[in-house]
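Q: Could you fold this chain for me?
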Amino acid sequence: MISLKQIRPRRKKYAKTNEKFRKQYLSGSPAQRLEGRTEKVIENTENIVGSVSKDQANQIAKLVEAYPVDMDGVYKERIRRQKDLIAVLRKIITEKPSIDVTETLLLKYIQTFEYGYTQEQKEFEMARLDSSVKLTVAITQIMTESQRKNAQDKVGDWIDDIKVLIANR
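A: Sure. Below is the predicted structure, expressed as structure tokens.
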């Protein structure tokens, strides 16, 4: 059974990862913030496709600038999601609701996780998604065939892993 003491480590983890997020995306000048986001996009790209050339890195930097994301808004939504989860867990622990009520609480959390509760939150996340998709499509257009193959293999491995998890449940 989960206890309130088990929430403390989750909150500490959130504090640590939030500090890292603030340092990478919210500190410094607008140019430094853009550089932090660019570095992360390049790192994520390389995790999927393998190394990128200097020319590709420069192209990615231009693409990141062309498809901006409001990182202050991203941070605000991140905090909302974390607080929502802590509130749900706290409610489950302290009130010990029935299975049905617990499932309803968790389902509501899942349903509001991505797009929030308000129209403003939904519009923000939709705009962020649109920008991210456009950025991803643009990055795939500058990949080499070898990088595309690496990405295909990586995604295929993820699919295989998911199939194994499903089969073993």
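A (continued): The first helix runs from residue 4 to 26.
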